[in-house]
């Protein structure tokens, strides 16, 4: 167990950690309230591409989570920032509910391909259009490469298998903007005034949440909710700082073991 440190920030995954679709993880709301009473900044970091940030906040508030839009850093935000920096016109393989976060982005005559979670668009015609654009020189941008995620009816394919298929077919490598990329975590911390060594990440994805955070210099706490499967903690090196049943236990550990006592 790590010694007590000057912890300044806690980054929290959303889907699978605080909730699964429209069901909250038991006790998560009260645990979040307890964490907010401590002397640490809280930020929510998500690879969710099924909905825009506004819809995500509304969902969380319906579940009685106290969350502000400005507290969420999403891979959609990171993707938009990259497109604007490079002045690219994307073919957006995203669900309609996520497109609001790309409002104002020019999508005429696409010269880039952006792939998120888009079950309604993962068909031969659309994927072949993306493939041909990439062959003509368009960069492939993956909002993330998650292998799968948790729905109420069980595990479901994430965008990763489709991104990998395009990489294989077009003999290219995608630029990944979401978790587990180091730049995603450092961007999320940038406005909190702390370094990775002063932060901890809580999430249900051992690779994207915990492994990515630890590679960036943070501590990572894995929760056994959401997409977690038995044995996940052994899939990364070093292993998670802690693996615990759910978000409330992660918060309890932080409050008891990771905060300096004044």
Automatic annotation (TrEMBL):
Its cofactor is Mg(2+). Residues 1-83 form the STAS domain. One of its GO terms (molecular function) is phosphatase activity. GO terms for cellular component: cytoplasm. Transmembrane segments: none annotated. The keyword Magnesium applies. InterPro entries: HAD-like_sf, HAD-SF_hydro_IIA, HAD_sf, LHPP/HDHD2, STAS_dom. The keyword Metal-binding applies. Keywords: Magnesium, Metal-binding. Belongs to the HAD-like hydrolase superfamily. This is Haloacid dehalogenase-like hydrolase domain-containing protein 2. The gene is LOC101074928.
